[in-house]
């Protein structure tokens, strides 16, 4: 089976994890802050807050931005459910902005129209979660202009875009948003097993996210509300969580991070090969927008509607090709349907979903495996 995504763990990664196992700290030692600094430096952000998943990072980002009951968070329906759920954890509501038919990212046109309408009825969002689908950055400059005009805050869900660039700067540099989120799940670009990270250039957001990561408990003198009676003293000043990353995970991440650029450039080689081999197939290849360098977490194609997507998908799986579909639109999930959403609400995301198949894409994939996938696709398309 050629999987759709797969981690690349090498001997040096294994050795750095073993080194932690032999050290004094399995968690809350030196590796987590070292990893936070390394990621922040790599992408050009001021602060990095490592956590146990991107889902946790989204949650603490929302908490730090003050998302609460009565607020609304907007995101795209073409994402993993976590990009929307973070608002519900905070007692806020979620709404969606339909996607652009070419990039499959949230459509700036749809966003502009929805903002105009929502300003009239007083239901503007507090936060927009912009998801860089498949690793291709959203149109951040225009989104930031709209945020200045309408006063919402921006979280970039860059789970797919670690190592990607927008206008020649790494995603995560924070030039166009308040917080950027990375995921280090094994199918993503670099891994810590489970793990995530929030990046920001705002000192007070960083402090707040650190508090929410660890029980809302602090020892920092400037955060204490009472006079410390002794050196053992700490205070709980927020209702936080235990979302900490371990030193084992951070050591793996630090070792993986050294190969980030290599990984993303290999993904580009694979995408180029797919692009050329799929020439003339009844499929739409991923569109690459200008001034963006995708992290290329995914290589999603659309199957021409003259073919049965399900048959093609099953034909590929029968041929041991681990294809997947990204994403079932979030608003069609039973949980969201029970809250008033339904099929037909965001037609562009639904149309894309009906035709989408993600082909295998991971850095240790060989050119020959790409050829194997394309040969299997050719057979599966002939099935009708
Ligand atoms: C994977 C993913 C997440 C969640 O990441 P975890 O680290 O598994 O919590 C969130 N958003 C998007 C877009 C993702 O792909």
Automatic annotation (TrEMBL):
One Pfam family linked to the record: DegT_DnrJ_EryC1
InterPro entries in alphabetical order: DegT/StrS_aminotransferase, PseC, PyrdxlP-dep_Trfase, PyrdxlP-dep_Trfase_major, PyrdxlP-dep_Trfase_small
Active site: 188 (proton acceptor)
Gene3D superfamilies reported for this sequence: Aspartate Aminotransferase, domain 1, Type I PLP-dependent aspartate aminotransferase-like (Major domain)
Keyword Transferase attached: yes
Residues bearing the modification N6-(pyridoxal phosphate)lysine: 188
Keywords: Aminotransferase, Pyridoxal phosphate, Transferase
Transferase listed as a keyword: yes
Database matches in CDD domains: AHBA_syn
Enzyme Commission no: 2.6.1.92
A single GO BP: polysaccharide biosynthetic process
Cofactor(s) this protein requires: pyridoxal 5'-phosphate
Gene Ontology MF, one: pyridoxal phosphate binding
Domain of life per record: Bacteria
Family, per entry: Belongs to the DegT/DnrJ/EryC1 family.
UniProt-listed PANTHER family: DTDP-4-AMINO-4,6-DIDEOXYGALACTOSE TRANSAMINASE, TRANSAMINASE
Name of the protein in question: UDP-4-amino-4, 6-dideoxy-N-acetyl-beta-L-altrosamine transaminase
Organism: Nesterenkonia sedimenti
Originating gene: pseC
């Amino acid at each position: 089976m050629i999987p759709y995504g797969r981690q690349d763990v090498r001997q040096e990664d294994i050795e750095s994890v073993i080194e932690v196992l032999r050290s004094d700290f399995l968690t809350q030692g030196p590796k987590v802050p070292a990893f936070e600094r390394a990621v922040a430096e790599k992408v050009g952000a001021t602060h990095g807050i490592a956590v146990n998943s991107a889902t946790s990072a989204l949650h603490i980002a929302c908490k730090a931005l003050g998302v609460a009951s009565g607020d609304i968070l907007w995101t795209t329906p073409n994402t993993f459910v976590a990009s929307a759920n973070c608002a519900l954890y905070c007692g806020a509501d979620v709404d969606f902005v339909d996607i652009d038919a070419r990039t499959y990212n949230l459509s700036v046109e749809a966003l502009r129209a929805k903002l105009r309408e929502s300003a009239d009825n007083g239901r503007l969002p507090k936060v927009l979660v912009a998801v860089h689908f498949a690793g291709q950055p959203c149109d951040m400059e225009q989104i930031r202009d709209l945020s200045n005009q309408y006063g919402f805050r921006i979280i970039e869900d860059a789970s797919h875009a670690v190592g990607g660039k927008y206008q020649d700067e790494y995603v995560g540099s924070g030039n166009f948003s308040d917080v950027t989120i990375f995921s280090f799940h094994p199918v993503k670009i670099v891994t810590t097993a489970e793990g995530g990270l929030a990046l920001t250039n705002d000192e007070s957001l960083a402090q707040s996210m650190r508090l929410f990561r660890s029980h809302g408990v602090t020892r920092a003198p400037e955060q204490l509300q009472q006079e410390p009676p002794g050196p053992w003293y700490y205070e709980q000043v927020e209702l936080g969580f235990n979302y900490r990353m371990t030193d084992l995970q951070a050591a793996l991440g630090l070792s993986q991070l050294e190969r980030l650029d290599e990984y993303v450039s290999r993904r580009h080689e694979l995408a180029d090969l797919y692009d050329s081999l799929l020439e003339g197939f009844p499929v739409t290849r991923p569109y690459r927008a200008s001034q963006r360098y995708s992290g290329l977490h995914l290589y999603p194609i659309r199957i021409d509607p003259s073919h049965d997507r399900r048959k093609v998908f099953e034909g590929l799986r029968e041929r041991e090709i681990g294809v997947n579909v990204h994403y079932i639109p979030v608003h069609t999930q039973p949980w969201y349907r029970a809250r008033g959403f339904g099929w037909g609400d965001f037609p562009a995301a639904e149309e894309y979903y009906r035709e989408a198949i993600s082909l295998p894409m991971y850095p240790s994939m060989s050119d020959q495996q790409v050829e194997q996938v394309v040969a299997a696709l050719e057979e599966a398309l002939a099935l009708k």
